[in-house]
Amino acid sequence: MKRGPLLLAFAWTVALVATLGSLYYSEVRLFLPCELCWYQRIFMYPQALLLGLALFRNDLGVWPYSLLLSLVGGSISLLHLAQQRFPDLFTLACKPPVPCTVEYIPAFPIPLQALIAFTLIALSMLLLARSPQKA
C-alpha cells in the first residue's frame, strides 16, 4: 500500500476515534459539553465522514478541506486550553449551563485530547499534500 492511502486511513481513524470519544463523554459519562467543546465538535465530526468517504473513494485530494477543518478546530482547542489554564486572562465566557473552565479530566483535559487529534490529522494532511497524488 502506498503512503497516501495509509495517511488517509490514519487520519480517518483519528477522526473516528475523536468523534466516538466525544460521544462517549457526553452520552455515556454524561459530561455536558461547553460552548467551545461544541465548536470543536463542529470541526471534528464532519472529518469522520469526509475522510471516511475519501478513503472509500481513494480520493487523496481531500487534504485541503481536512487541513482547514483541523487548523480551525485545533485553534479552538488551544483557546479552550488557555481558558482552562488561565481563566482570569480571558473575558470570553461560555454561556450557562457549563462554563468553559470546567475540567472533567484534569490529568488529560478534553481540549488537549481534541488538540492532539486535530494536530495528528493536520500533520497527516500536510504529508498527504506532499505525497504523489496517484494512489
TrEMBL record:
Gene Ontology BP terms: protein folding
Keyword Cytoplasm among record annotations: no
Membrane-crossing residue ranges in chain numbering: 38-56, 63-82, 110-129
Organism of provenance: Thermus oshimai JL-2
Main location: membrane
InterPro entries in the record: DiS_bond_form_DsbB/BdbC, Disulphide_bond_form_BdbC, DsbB-like_sf
GO cellular-component term (any): membrane
Signal peptide: none
Keywords, comma-separated and alphabetical: Chaperone, Disulfide bond, Electron transport, Membrane, Oxidoreductase, Redox-active center, Transmembrane, Transmembrane helix, Transport
Protein name: Disulfide bond formation protein DsbB
Keyword Protein biosynthesis: no
Species lineage: Bacteria, Thermotogati, Deinococcota, Deinococci, Thermales
Cellular localisation: Membrane
Alphabetized GO MF terms: protein-disulfide reductase activity
Topology class, membrane: Multi-pass membrane protein
Family: Belongs to the DsbB family. BdbC subfamily.
